[in-house]
């Protein structure tokens, strides 16, 4: 019986975990190596800023695995020998596999920036979860917060923090010419107006060289002081991938079939994959959409059938949660701002989360019929 080892309970592997019965019926012994909890990034800014309770975006992976009769090994991947096909876990277990799939996300680790250990990073998400507690711990001392990185997550966090009563001032530092890259021009202007109205100081064209506990230093010598710093830039694949020889900071190089470019038995999905047919942004949508393709690939492989390919959507809906009850939704060149956009986001996020937080049994033939 071939052993299928799933490493990390990211979006795509959660899809597989729910459908472990189909994989078992196809002849696999399925092992899942992952931390007990998965935290969902769609609500991460709101939970980090204290608007939503931390439990809202939390999935109990152990409970999900138990409900699917999946063999779970709680912990993380520490090292791996791709030749011998053996993984070593943080608990010291050795797990031999025939087929491996990696879904371990990304880390905020910009190249060439010296980052003090006290700085909170948006990825992995567990670091970000400390933000609310750190601000509350200051009591009556209102904090000056610097957010480094003006992409979607940096903008969300700056916007959220700007309406907290215990935050005195928010500074958003971005190396590019503007914030909200990738959004339509009108949406970017709307965000800039919102941030200005909320008193956020936006510094663009500033390349941060050193991000310290109480100040940052830019390449041009600019110094910006703060009480709390948040790093929301430089998402890369976890360094572990290079250590085990399956990729580099860009990710595990995969073909359209989601298989490693040189190793048919290795799959990678989500943020930790480098999709070779075309560069994909690190957004959860791809992890979610790759789940069914990965499942079908594993089932087809067991039958000796042709493997499906992942065809990424050119345009995906993105909704930013901008705090104070408003959001900004964008798809392609279209965008809209307001409370309805945030309601849509909450609806989509809750629906996805409920699938894994309150799993209902799937119809027996479900996975094969997609
Ligand atoms: C603040 C913020 C907000 C965001 N909002 C959105 C949004 O609204 N919509 C959107 O599409 N994208 C959003 N993103 C991007 C999104 O977070 C990522 O693209 C998405 O999480 C990637 O999914 P994934 O399944 O690849 O990995 P992840 O969701 O990161 O899951 C990977 C899992 O692997 C586990 N893991 C890590 N290392 C190991 C290891 N060595 N061994 C075992 N397990 C491991 C982790 O604990 C984690 O549970 C946001 C990002 C941030 C930072």
UniProtKB/TrEMBL annotation:
InterPro entries named in the record: FAD/NAD-bd_sf, FAD/NAD-binding_dom, NADH-Q_oxidoreductase
Domain spans labelled FAD/NAD(P)-binding: 5-281
The organism's place on the tree of life at top rank: Bacteria
Cofactor: FAD
Keywords, comma-separated and alphabetical: FAD, Flavoprotein, Oxidoreductase
Membership in a protein family: Belongs to the NADH dehydrogenase family.
The protein, known as: FAD-dependent oxidoreductase
Source organism phylogeny: Bacteria, Bacillati, Actinomycetota, Actinomycetes, Mycobacteriales
């Amino acid at each position: 019986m071939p052993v299928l080892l799933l490493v990390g309970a990211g979006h795509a592997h959660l899809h597989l975990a729910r459908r472990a019965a189909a994989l078992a019926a196809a002849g696999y012994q399925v092992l899942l190596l992952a931390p007990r909890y998965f935290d969902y990034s769609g609500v991460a800014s709101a939970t980090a800023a204290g608007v939503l309770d931390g439990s809202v975006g939390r999935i109990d992976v152990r409970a999900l695995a138990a409900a699917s009769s999946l063999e779970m090994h709680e912990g993380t991947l520490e090292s791996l020998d791709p030749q011998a096909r053996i993984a070593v876990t943080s608990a010291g277990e050795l797990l031999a596999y025939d087929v491996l799939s990696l879904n371990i996300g990304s880390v905020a680790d910009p190249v060439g920036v010296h980052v003090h250990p006290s700085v909170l990073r948006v990825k992995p998400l567990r670091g970000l979860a400390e933000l609310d507690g750190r601000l509350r711990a200051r009591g009556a001392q209102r904090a000056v917060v610097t957010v480094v990185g003006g992409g979607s997550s940096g903008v969300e966090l700056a916007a959220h923090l700007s309406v907290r009563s215990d935050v005195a001032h928010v500074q958003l530092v971005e190396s590019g010419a503007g914030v909200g890259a990738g959004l339509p021009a009108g949406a970017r202007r709307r965000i800039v107006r919102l941030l200005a109205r909320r008193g956020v100081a936006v510094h663009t064209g500033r390349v941060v060289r050193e991000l310290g506990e109480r100040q940052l230093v830019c390449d041009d010598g600019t110094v910006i002081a703060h009480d709390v710093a948040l790093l929301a830039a430089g998402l890369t694949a976890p360094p572990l991938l290079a250590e085990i020889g399956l990729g580099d900071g860009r990710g595990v190089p995969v073909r359209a079939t989601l298989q490693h470019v040189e190793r048919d038995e290795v799959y990678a999905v989500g943020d930790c994959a480098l999709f070779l047919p075309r560069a994909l942004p690190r957004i959860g949508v791809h992890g979610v959409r790759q789940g069914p393709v990965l499942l079908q690939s594993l089932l087809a492989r067991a039958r000796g059938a042709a493997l499906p390919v992942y065809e990424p959507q050119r345009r995906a809906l993105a909704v930013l949660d901008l705090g104070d009850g408003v959001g900004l939704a964008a798809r392609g060149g279209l965008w809209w701002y307001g409370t309805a956009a945030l309601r849509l986001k909450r609806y989509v996020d809750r629906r996805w989360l409920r699938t894994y937080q309150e799993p209902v049994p799937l119809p027996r033939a479900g996975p094969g019929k997609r």
